[in-house]
Design brief:
By secondary structure, this protein is α/β, with parallel strands linked by helices. It has 22 helices and 25 strands. The strands form seven sheets. It has a six-stranded mixed beta sheet. A five-stranded parallel beta sheet has the order 4-3-2-1-10. Strands 20-19-24-25 form a four-stranded antiparallel beta sheet. A hairpin with a 2-residue loop joins strand 7 and strand 8. The termini are far apart. Bound molecules: beta-D-glucopyranose (BGC).
Length: 742
């Protein structure tokens, strides 16, 4: 294959011993302006690659552009056969035969699905998260994909925004670790291997702060939040060597990020030294026009190219406008050269010039997908992602010998919803259901569906579906609950209720589920609420009344097996919330690392910062999660004698009867600074495993990296003064101490 490729390849100077930079430079010299601009153009697939399909008007044009070398990358073309065909078309028929990049949103797995990213974040287990991304890359690379549009590293404090399911939650420090782990998992140590793929940190930047959680909405945030919260995981991804960055749909402080010069050129490329390339979000260059930032597509292309967006996803703005813009002097050709250079470099690094069919191996395609080992790892990841929110009277774990276990709720028997959103190439209806999982542990299970919560005919606008007010199924479920020893209520959101364009203003259990739960609770108090959802929900009544609550998110292919293992005590839940659960939607945005006000606590005086109809505290705070065992924290020691390396030690003891894992969390509070600092900031965490009655000393180190922050001029500063420390089991409880930085 390799020999054949070189035989017809017309580019000189491909000698192995030349550096990639030299090869790219020589190649650039051979390229026409049209071909360089072509590298900056990405098209969507979805058509029969043996030829254009008539009903897709663009297909014929795209096909022609591919042959001319006017396309640098395709998205959503998968499968070795399809990828090979297109690659061959370009390599053999275009003038220079420059291979294509093939990208797709491989967000939490290709065929074997891991938990949704928000769920994985709840594991606080970076090795497991890295492994999950590794497996996604193994499978995706086996079907011809060499680039994933992941990880999404958008910090968000707003559960109304449907895309929180896709990210790592609300905290920049946790988000930074997750970004690193995922980039490492996808890209591995050597990008040129046929099982590693380029990663893409997205969406640069601020998308998670869309106003009122409404999809594609405006973002208006201050510099402190931008620099210290939003940018943190992106910087971590760049430092971890991420090859690409995607900008976004949103306007940030008046400028659409796709056209934001300061973000893309000044911060990302200059200040951080990012040497990969930036891809636009889907049609986001063209969207500069409706944003009111560009007059027409030509101006949109001009602005985006100048701002540093290197590749255009599906706007056709570059391929139709950029050549003319260069010829008329509106865009300097050096910008095109720079973009093309960045893109070609990634292609070289992926090894595509050595073998454009590197990712097209039928044998691998057959062997890699849905491998047993992949499912075993997905199951482990799923188990680690489960969060125990409440367990009054040790209702959980369920005793296997209970004669009558009722399982109620449509989601319990749903093999699609646990897969969550963003699972483009996985097989629908392929998850292990909760019911199937439970039946492997006990023969004493009876199921009742209850009212339907999901009507596929409503295009997912299910809250307004007439079918969802149909109470049939309710009485059967209540009757079953009445005669059972314990009732497992499997409730939450269906698989597409969160994700892109799934913003919601109501975050309670959708449809008739709360009513169902309340009716069941009237006849049986031994209720366990098993939640399947893609975002924090508002569960005030549930948290007050239901004795046991298990947050299982959407756990992917192995969901039912993991949930059953937790419910029956085969594993001990150890997840911690990566995002605050509000009491009601009015509290949003709600997050633990907020600033103090000037009137934090003047109770019972009315003039302090609070609501008059709900308390300030969330329902479940960031970092919270219980275990079947209990952990005691003691002996907090702070040694600040070395001011460059403050040592913090604490002892954790497993005081219960179960072996269990605990995520030990360290928070700091910089008490007085030149710009106000959050009341708490996560700056360290360690996951430890303790046998019953065992103790372990855990050590943290605080250096400038943890103690400093970005001021409003985007300079990293470390300021002397007193720092409070809290080490504990969540963002709301732990041991306190302090030290002074001189
Ligand atoms: C999303 C991106 C995604 C792209 C391609 C857009 O709608 O915002 O995150 O990568 O589509 O599928």
């Amino acid at each position: 294959m390799i020999l054949l490729y070189f035989a017809m390849y017309s580019i000189p100077n491909m000698a192995q011993n030349n550096s990639i930079a030299q090869k790219v430079d020589s190649l650039l010299q051979l390229m026409t302006l049209e071909e360089k601009v072509g590298q900056m153009n990405q098209y969507n697939g979805f058509w029969d690659v043996t030829g254009p399909v008539p009903e897709n008007g663009n297909a014929a044009m795209k096909y022609e552009h591919l042959k001319k070398g006017w396309v640098g990358s395709m998205l959503n073309v998968t499968g070795v056969k399809n990828v090979r065909k297109l690659q061959q078309l370009v390599v053999e028929e275009s003038r220079l035969g420059i291979p294509l990049l093939f990208g797709q949103d491989v967000i939490h797995g290709y065929k074997t699905l891991s938990p949704i990213p928000l769920a994985e974040a709840a594991s606080w287990d970076m090795a497991a998260i890295e492994m999950s991304a590794r497996i996604a890359a193994e499978e995706a690379s086996a079907v011809g994909i060499n680039w994933t549009f992941a990880p999404m590293v958008d910090i968000s404090r707003d559960a109304r925004w449907g895309r929180v399911m896709e990210g790592g939650g609300e905290d920049p420090y946790l988000g930074m670790h997750i970004a690193r782990a995922r980039v490492k998992g996808f890209q591995g140590d050597d990008l040129s291997k046929n099982n590693t793929i380029a990663a893409c940190a997205k969406h640069f930047a601020g998308y998670g702060f869309v106003e009122s959680g409404k999809e594609y909405n405006t973002v208006d945030i201050g510099t402190s939040t931008l620099y210290n919260t939003v940018l943190t995981p992106f910087k971590a991804a760049v430092d971890a060597g991420v090859k690409t960055i995607m900008n976004g749909f949103n306007v940030l402080n008046g400028v659409p990020v796709t056209g934001d010069f300061r973000l893309q050129r000044e911060i990302l490329k200059e200040k951080w030294g990012f040497d990969g390339f930036v891809i636009s979000d889907w049609a986001s260059i063209g969207e500069l026009v409706p944003h009111g930032f560009a007059e027409d597509l030509a101006q949109a292309a001009e602005i985006a190219a100048k701002a540093g967006s290197d590749m255009d996803m599906e706007s056709s703005a570059y391929v139709t406008q950029l050549v003319e813009l260069v010829k008329t002097g509106r865009v300097n050709e050096s910008l095109v050269d720079d973009a093309a250079r960045r893109i070609l470099t990634v292609k070289y690094e992926l090894g595509l010039f050595d073998d454009p069919y590197r990712y097209c191996n039928e044998k691998r395609e057959k062997e890699e997908l849905n491998r047993k080992e992949h499912h075993a790892a997905a199951l482990e990841m799923a188990k680690k992602s489960i969060v125990l929110l409440k367990n009054e009277g040790h209702l959980l774990p369920i005793k296997k010998d209970q004669p009558k276990i009722a399982v109620i709720g449509e989601l319990a028997n749903d093999n699609n919803s646990p897969l969550g959103s963003w699972r483009l190439s996985s097989d629908n209806n392929s998850a292990v259901t909760v019911l199937e999982g439970l039946k492997k542990f006990s023969g004493n299970i009876t199921y009742a569906r209850g009212p339907k919560i999901f009507d596929p005919n409503t295009n997912f606008l299910d809250e307004i579906s007439p079918n969802l007010t149909d109470e049939s199924g309710l009485s059967e479920a209540v009757a079953l609950a009445k005669t059972s020893d314990i009732v497992l209520m499997v409730l939450g959101e269906h698989g597409f209720q969160s994700g892109e364009a799934r913003s919601r203003t109501k975050l309670g259990l959708p449809g008739l589920q709360l009513k169902l739960l309340q009716e069941v609770y009237k006849v049986n108090k031994n209720v366990v609420l098993v939640l399947l959802n893609g975002r924090p929900l508002t569960l005030e009544w549930e948290a007050k009344n239901i004795p046991a609550i298990l947050e299982t998110w959407q756990l992917g292919s192995q969901a039912g097996n993991a949930i059953a293992a937790a419910l029956f005590g085969e594993i001990n839940p150890s997840g911690k919330l990566p995002m605050t659960f509000p009491r009601n939607v009015g509290q949003i945005p709600i997050y633990y690392n907020h600033f103090s006000t000037g009137r934090p606590t003047l109770e019972p005086n009315v003039f302090w910062s609070h609501y008059s109809d709900v308390q300030n505290e969330p329902l479940f705070p960031f970092g919270f999660g219980l275990s079947y065992t209990t952990f005691a924290y003691s002996d907090l020691q702070i040694d600040s004698s070395d001011q460059n390396n403050i040592k913090v030690e604490v002892t954790i003891t497993n005081t219960g009867d179960w072996a269990g894992e605990e995520v030990v969390q360290l928070y700091i509070h910089d008490k007085v600074a030149s710009i106000v600092r959050p009341v708490k900031e996560l700056k360290g965490f360690q996951k430890i495993n303790l046998a019953p009655k065992a103790s372990q000393k855990v050590e943290f180190h605080l250096t400038e990296k943890e103690l400093g922050f970005y001021n409003n001029a985007y300079e990293f500063v470390v300021e002397p003064g007193t720092f409070d420390i809290m080490v504990g089991t969540s963002s709301q409880s732990g041991l306190h101490g302090s030290f002074t930085l001189n």
